[in-house]
Structure formats: C-alpha cells, structure tokens
Amino acid sequence: MSAAPDATVALENPGGVAPAAATARVASGLQNPRGVAVLPDGRLVVVEAGNGIETTDAAQETGRVSVFVDLNEDGDYDDAGEIDPIVSQIPSYNTLTQFGTGHDEVGGAGDIVSLGDGRMLFTRDDPAEGYLADGRPQGINVVELSLESGLGDNLIVRNATMNALAFDDAAEVLYVVESGANGPIAVTLDGTIRPVAEFSPLGQGQQAVPSGIALDPTTGDVLVALFSGQVDDYFGNVLSFWPGASKIVRVDPATGRYSDAITGLTTAVDVAVDDDGNVFVVELTSVWPSAKMPRDFDLFDPDAAPDPGGYTRFAGSVTMYPAVDGDPVVLANGLDLPTNITYADRALYVSIGQGTPGRRIIGPTGSTFITGELHRIELE
Ligand SMILES: [Ca+2]
Ligand SMILES: [Ca+2]
Ligand SMILES: [Ca+2]
What we know:
Layout: H1 7-12, E1 22-30, E2 33-38, E3 44-48, E4 63-68, E5 83-90, E6 93-94, H2 95-99, E7 106-107, E8 112-114, E9 119-125, E10 140-146, E11 150-157, E12 162-168, E13 173-178, E14 181-188, E15 193-195, E16 210-215, E17 222-226, E18 231-232, E19 238-239, E20 246-251, E21 258-265, E22 268-273, E23 279-283, E24 316-321, E25 329-335, E26 340-344, E27 347-352, E28 360-363, E29 366-369, E30 372-378
Antiparallel strand pairs: 1-30, 2-3, 3-4, 4-5, 6-7, 8-9, 9-10, 10-11, 12-13, 13-14, 14-15, 16-17, 17-20, 18-19, 20-21, 22-23, 23-24, 24-25, 26-27, 27-30, 28-29
The structure holds calcium ion (3 copies).
One calcium ion binds at residues 74, 76, 78-79.
C-alpha cells in the first residue's frame, strides 16, 4: 500500500487535473446525512443525525432513517416521494452545546448496515436519555430495524458514542468502533461482545480515535480509520487533530493483530473497500484545524458571523488506494466536511455537510449555508 499523497495535492489538483471519477450530487437539503446502507434491490437506506436542536418535545426531534428510491429514474433522489422516512423523531444534539467540543458537530443516529435480508442495524446516540441501573447511558445503542416490522430491540448498549459499523455477512458478525475505546469490538447477532484490538496512541501521543470501519472482503480483515484525538500544538494550544497523524490500520479480527495500511493522512473519517480490495478513504478536511467555536455561539442566529465550525470547510476528499501496485488516485475533492462513505456495486456514496443545517458559512464563491448532501462517485 502506498503512502498518502501530499494533502495540498488532494486540495489543489495542481496541473488542473480533474478528479479521476464522475461525481454527482444525488440528494440535497438533508440534515447531517451519515451512514448509507445499500439494500439487495439497490435502494438506499440513509441515516440523518438531524439538526442538532436539543428538545424535550419528542415530536420536534429531527433524526431519521429513510429509504431513498429514484422513482423517476433521473439518477437522483431529489424528486417528489423519493425519500421515504421509515424511522423519524430520533434524538439529535450538537457536541458544541452538549460537550463544548469547539465544533459545530451534530450527533444522534449515525451509521447503518444492511444484513442482506431486509434487516438493518443502526447506531443511536442520545446523551439526554438517562442511565440504566448499572450506570450505562441507555441512549447509546445499536438498534435493529426491519423494512417489514420497523424499529426493533437494542442489539447492544454501550458507554460511548459508536462511530461506525461494518457487517461480515458470511460470519454474521458486526464490527463496531467507539469513540471511547481505541479499538473495534465484534458483536454476534445475539449481542455477545468481544473486544478485537486496542490501538496504540498516534504519533504525537494523542488518542487513536477510530472514526470509520470497513470489512475487506478479499481477506476478512477489518480496516479502521483513525481520526486522531486532541493534541497540543507548538504553542500549547489544543488542536482537534494533527495533520499527517491520521491513518488507516488493517486488523485481523481473529488474532487482533494490526498494522498500518495507509499513513500520513490529515483527517481520515471513514473507509470503504471494494470487491477487489481497493481501499477508499474519505477525509473530513485537508488543512489545519480552524479556530474552535465558543460554546455559547448561537448556532441558530441567522445574523451570526459565518464561522466554519472548527474544521476548514470545502476541503474534504475521497482517495482510492489500489489493492495492488499503483499510486493513490484522488476521486473527489473540495467536499464540504464529508463524514461517511459506503461502497456498493461500483459506486461510492459520500455523505456531506456536517454542522447546523442552514447556518451561514463561507464557501468557495462566498457566503452560503450548511446543507446536507449525498454524492455518488461512479467507479469504472
Ligand atoms: Ca429522481
Ligand atoms: Ca431529480
Ligand atoms: Ca462507512
């Protein structure tokens, strides 16, 4: 596996070379789109974390899981009736107001996987839901969902936000990465949990926060995106990440042994693998962290200054790392804070636009607003 390209290459495309794949925006006006599952019949199931407004009125909650169908077959999901919510009113929150992270980052429902028979599993994250008798926060769970019977039971309840899921259909094992544990867990469909590995800290001693996970169908390995935890800079300021420290690790789930697969990344936030073992990495942004937001920033004030929200916007990318020899290929760049990637049937689905929907930001051509979008990258 080759080293990562220079981040400036991904951002600027020197020589005017266009990204090496056709990208189309297939849905817009979403509220923090996250995980995408592709059903056997080709329909998409898309999770939206919502708008981040914390409310005690369940009817006002904005997280949802929807089936996306291209009814008029024009290649997108923006036409009437093409987005059909199957679970709505899922709690949503903003990490800025909830935890003072300095980022305009919405939490709630997150990743989703299809089990291949109409059943799915997705993550929920509601810090306001309270605690179980044993002290665990009951709002952080993986829950079952079925096209036939709707929302099911919790498969597991955990202590910290679960960032991503991958499902091995042959073994019927779910792999989960959590922000509070620096390694994946394996979960059987009866809810039995086995820790798989625990990663060492990254290059500057920061936590190896896993943000994305995928199964390599050619080897049975699990690939994990390590985003980087907070780290001090030269001046003692706390940075959200350290450019170059982020990486993809390859884990053998049987032994827990792991090794670096792709290093030198800036903000690897999710990873996907195709049937030939080519690896696709989505980076949230390609440049140094922008200034953090004050915790009391009014995210819903239409007159507030156009703050990026802690991460430089319109600098995200998708890069392919060939399974066999070959240089990395930038497939898309200039994306506005992408968070998730899913591979299916020679296409990649990329979820874009983290932050408070409708909040004013500066885009490549001036003032604009945060909007959630789903992009599809066609592979050859
Ligand atoms: Ca359509
Ligand atoms: Ca359309
Ligand atoms: Ca993913």
